[in-house]
């Protein structure tokens, strides 16, 4: 990376929430306006709240992690509807800690989609222990 000013552009790539640009493999993220809920005590409370928010997903399939820098890469991290319009997944980052992400595109993509985060108490090891549980 350089320390010089560069011109940047604000745009969305249809059908992609995140994507790589340039030979530098810069990872960019479409704005999402996600709702971050208050932290709950446990994974189970977060999962139950996610299910209450999502409602009926219909038939589901395992959802596999795609971010190479995550401990969840290539592993089952949640569930997704067979039509790909709604999913939940367990995640961890330094800012939110362990949490469940909800992505619901049944109402449409981009700004019509709903993205919510339900943090639960713990640390990165807590996240990894739930990955093991999901991948039994």
Search tags:
2 helices; alpha+beta; 32% strand; 8 strands; 6-stranded mixed beta sheet; 136 residues; Intein C-terminal splicing region; Hint_dom_sf; two-stranded antiparallel sheet; Intein_C
What does this molecule look like?
- With 136 residues, this protein is α+β, with helices and mostly antiparallel strands.
- It has one domain.
- It has two helices and eight strands; from the N terminus they run βββαβββββα.
- The protein has helices at residues 43-54, 124-134; strands spanning 18-21, 26-29, 35-36, 60-64, 76-81, 86-93, 97-104, 114-119.
- It has a six-stranded mixed sheet with strand order 3-8-7-6-5-4.
- A hairpin with a 3-residue loop joins strand 6 and strand 7 (97-104).
- The longest helix is centred in the middle third of the chain and has 12 residues, at 43-54.
- The N and C termini lie far apart (40 Å).
- The model has no long low-confidence stretch (mean pLDDT 86).
- Pfam families: PT-HINT.
- This is Intein C-terminal splicing region.
- InterPro entries: Hint_dom_sf (IPR036844), Intein_C (IPR030934).
């Amino acid at each position: 990376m350089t320390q010089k000013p560069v011109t940047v552009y604000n745009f969305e790539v249809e059908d992609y929430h995140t994507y790589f640009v340039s030979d530098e493999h810069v990872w960019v993220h479409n704005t999402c306006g996600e709702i971050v809920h208050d932290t709950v005590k446990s994974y189970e409370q977060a999962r139950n709240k996610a299910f209450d928010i999502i409602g009926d997903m219909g038939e589901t399939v395992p959802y596999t992690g795609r971010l190479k820098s995550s401990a969840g890469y290539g592993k089952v991290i949640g569930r997704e509807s067979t039509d790909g319009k709604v999913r939940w997944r367990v995640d961890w980052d330094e800012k939110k800690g362990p949490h469940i992400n909800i992505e619901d595109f049944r109402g449409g993509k981009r700004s019509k989609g709903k993205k919510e985060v339900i943090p639960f108490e713990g640390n990165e090891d807590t996240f990894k222990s739930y990955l093991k549980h999901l991948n039994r």
